[in-house]
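Rotation project, supervised by the postdoc (A.L.). Task for the rotation student: set up a whole-complex structure prediction and record inputs and outputs verbatim in this book. Inputs entered:
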Amino acid sequence: MFETAINSNAATFGGSMVGKDPKWDRFDADGPKRNPATTNVKTERAVTSVDPDQTSKSMSDLLVRVGDQDQDAFRAVFDYFAPRLKAFLMGQGTSPQMAEEVVQETMVKIWRKADQYDPARAAASTWIFTIARNMRIDHLRKSNRPEPDMNDPAFIPDPEPLATEAISQAQDSAQLYAAMAELSEDQRAVLKLAYFEEKAHPEIADALGIPLGTVKSRIRLALKNIRSRIGDSE
Amino acid sequence: MTISHHPGEELLLDYVAGSLAETWSLAVATHLALCPMCRRTVSELEAVGGELVSAVAPVPVEDDLYDSIVAATNAAHEDSVSSRPVADSSGPNPILPEPLRSYLGGDVDSLEWRRLGLGAHQLPIPTGDELTTARLLRIPAGRPVPTHSHGGLELTLVLSGAFSDSTGTYGRGDLQEADESIDHQPQAALGEDCICLAVTDAPLRFKSLGARMVQPLIGI
Ligand SMILES: [Zn+2]
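Outputs recorded:
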């Protein structure tokens, strides 16, 4: 359904920009630097100038405060994430209006569920990504996303070591960020397409003009490189 | 009961990215309920997604979006979680984990199986996805698993008993990813009926199992 979306955004987000993608400046060392003054996002001031680790930490703290129904914290989370979620959703071929609807639903969900957020288990960005993804599936596809239920008696719980070494903790976010920044252009391009354009792998192959087997091996390699950088044995 | 056959990373990535259709996701999610190792991979892939969202260049939102959100958070909300009824957990050790059990409305003992021939039974699983088919299969111990013609991917998740084919033995929690290039002749292991979830990307057209049984199985 997304391939039918023809709007200016879909055009700028199409296959041609893969590689030197101005939307990906944070990872692209030689790309244009994001200038907070031109982003038109008022309260970005709080977070733009700090390093990713600090951002991640402060976002986790903010999200915990949202769990206590702290409106200022909610506003700060909104200011940081709403424009990014909108960009993320538009990258998936969603129209700006529709993207804002999903952003709205995601933010409402964040407000209502933030008391369940556990900073020891996931970075704020990870938690928010999963909510936005689920809201998008709800909203655009009107279908269910089956998920395991950890309270189900048939659910096999994590063995202890696994639970404590989960890499998705906020303090590991900088490490993950660094690992992703080190990926080759090729590898980052396939990852972006996989996450941002909801593309099946054959469509990624088409968009990049490379064989399907190459897409698969690049994805595998990208994930392997990330793993080795974050010190996780394969 | 160690799981030795896991979904490929691509399948997990599509599940994480939200691009995997509901029916395939059902098989993946049910495997995840039984597999802490793949759940960890999923957590990692979600963290990658979170980093990608953080790294994207922001697109300004409409001026009134925040106010609309605040208004919406203040509005009374009905928890519109899911239209599916939550299944009774049938006893302390259900064979069917969530989310599969809710799709079927109960555990294996409560199901109204349909005969497939020669002791095999099946049960179609309704999903919102019309391009794929999910069903539960129950194959008597020691009998061949009815395979079928299909053009693409097939996921088989074992929930009880086991089956074996040329690629190995699959027990509870094991997930087989097969495509048409694999000419496998799965056979349920002795001792216990094999119950598995089978997802295919086309409506299943079982060859008549009776016909298959009297003919040589090759080439059907
Ligand atoms: Zn697994």
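Student's summary: The radius of gyration of chain A is 18 Å.
Supervisor addendum: Residues 71-91 of chain A form the longest helix (21 residues).
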